[in-house]
Amino acid sequence: MSNNPALQTLRSVFGYDSFRGQQQHIIEQLIGGRDVLVLMPTGGGKSLCYQIPALVMDGVGIVISPLIALMQDQVSALHQVGVRAAYLNSTLALEQVREIEQQLQNGELDLLYIAPERLSNARTQALFARCKIALFAIDEAHCVSQWGHDFRADYLLLSVLHEQFPQVPRIALTATADERTRQEIIARLALEQAQVFVSGFDRPNIRYRIIQKDNARQQLLNFIRTEHPGDTGIVYCLSRKKVEETADWLNQKGLKALPYHAGMEHRERQKNQHQFLMEDGLIIVATIAFGMGIDKPNVRFVAHLDLPKSVEAYYQETGRAGRDGLPANAWMAYGLQDVLTLRQMLSTSNADEAHKRIELHKLDAMLALCEMVSCRRQALLGYFGDVLEQGCGNCDTCLEPVETWDGSVAAQQALSCIYRTGQRFGVTYLIDVLLGKADDRMRQFGHDKQSTFGIGKALDEKQWRSVFRQLVAKSLVEIDFEGHGSLKLTDACRPVLRGEQTLMLRKDAQIAKTRREKAEK
Ligand code: ADP
Ligand code: ZN
């Protein structure tokens, strides 16, 4: 028998043999009276990190949770293993509230779950003052952050806990927090002294791959046919229309695909989801509406035909692959048009300016991941603060190192072309100018007489698209949506334009291949 009370509790109460990942360290910190911030993905085992200390320590563990349904589930799971737990939220009648308050005062509870809005309540504060509190656990701590996606004003009240009970250790937990969200959590909850634990984000069995679009539907079909014949998979698209079209097309090609999006009739949607869960070898083509609570272990691939809005979204959606731990693929085709579409959706949305700026930053981080020339997993984990010392060996950039080329001259030509034509035109027109393809419209504008007319013949159209995409992704060029998607120079492009900065660009795989093929002919 162990003399470690935390381990004893893990075994005798929860029936598990050993701690997972960093659970033990986290628990020790709390029992030692110190604050901690825990970042662990969903399913990582966060609950035990506060449940066990609450059982080991004197007094009751107070758990602040915003989700009523989860609160109820947790409490009934705890009752099943004989833990004295209860919750206080708006679903209870006054009589029930009184009973729980009484238990609390008598020291008859190990864990109390409570909704954040109740904390400002004088009644709650008086109650807390009358009982012995072991710890505070703040679940879904990212809700305190405006930068995050789930802000709840009630969470701002949580700083009072620390002011009123400075000696009680706190644990804040979340599954999603990039660097800025983390900083905000620390600042708003006064967790400057807390030890931060980030772990468990890696999904080593998922192979990440992001390729450049070149007839994406066909690329998807080739990918499925060669690597996943007969496998279960999810294909994500941005729009309902594209979901329908892609599902139809895959069916025409002899695959079994079902659509899923919020615009479908409820019954139909439920039916497709049910079929996907029950049967194997089906492909579900879906908008992001699909996936909440989907836990099918043998999804062998997740494919994106459109760029996700953020790295968090990408991580979450790709994370639905390979839950069984067996090899799985996260495959994405992405191109310039994706960037244009998403930026446009953002700029025309009704959100306020501050919010739009946040969303733009998130999109930029996603773009950086797409344009990566080093290990994608390292970057992905790094986004959540999880460290991977070396390249993973299981992503496209590790398996097939990306070739780069000195794109400085091409970039200068592209940037001058934008400038000389008055920053009023989109990519297709600009490429025509660079390639010297004049039409009546171009002649009318006199752009066939411009110095940049025909100077770009060293590259072909696809290569120019790749250059423009990377200029946009690197924010050397921005898109003006009031000007119908015309490209404009940004301040950041000046050093490149003046030839003071070398610009290394990705050689896109398809393009490199066509070049080789041409050379071989
Ligand atoms: P999270 O809150 O991080 O999403 P949970 O706390 O719900 O995750 O844990 C996910 C699952 O893992 C639960 O079924 C839990 O019982 C199980 N689990 C957690 N820690 C351990 C452990 N040390 N050994 C075995 N199972 C564990
Ligand atoms: Zn890698």
Q: What do you see in this structure?
A:
Belongs to the helicase family. RecQ subfamily. Its EC number is 5.6.2.4. It catalyses: Couples ATP hydrolysis with the unwinding of duplex DNA by translocating in the 3'-5' direction. One of its GO terms (molecular function) is DNA helicase activity. With 521 residues, the chain is an alpha/beta fold. It is 43% helix and 15% strand. It has 22 helices and 17 strands. The strands form four sheets. Strands 3-4-2-5-6-1-7 form a seven-stranded parallel sheet, with helices on both faces. Strands 8-13-12-9-11-10 form a six-stranded parallel sheet, with helices on both faces. The model has no long low-confidence stretch (mean pLDDT 92). It binds adenosine-5'-diphosphate and zinc ion. Adenosine-5'-diphosphate binds next to helix 3.
Provide key terms for this protein.
binds adenosine-5'-diphosphate; 6-stranded parallel sheet; binds zinc ion; alpha/beta; 521 residues; 17 strands
What is the alpha-carbon Rg in Å? Answer: 27 Å
Bound ligands: adenosine-5'-diphosphate, zinc ion
Global structural class: alpha/beta
Q: Main β-sheet, in a few words?
A: 7 strands, parallel
Tertiary shape: elongated
Q: How much helical structure, as a percent, in the residues?
A: 40-55%
Share of residues in strands: 5-15%
Cofactor: Zn(2+); Mg(2+)
EC number: 5.6.2.4
Catalytic activity: Couples ATP hydrolysis with the unwinding of duplex DNA by translocating in the 3'-5' direction
GO molecular function, one term: DNA helicase activity
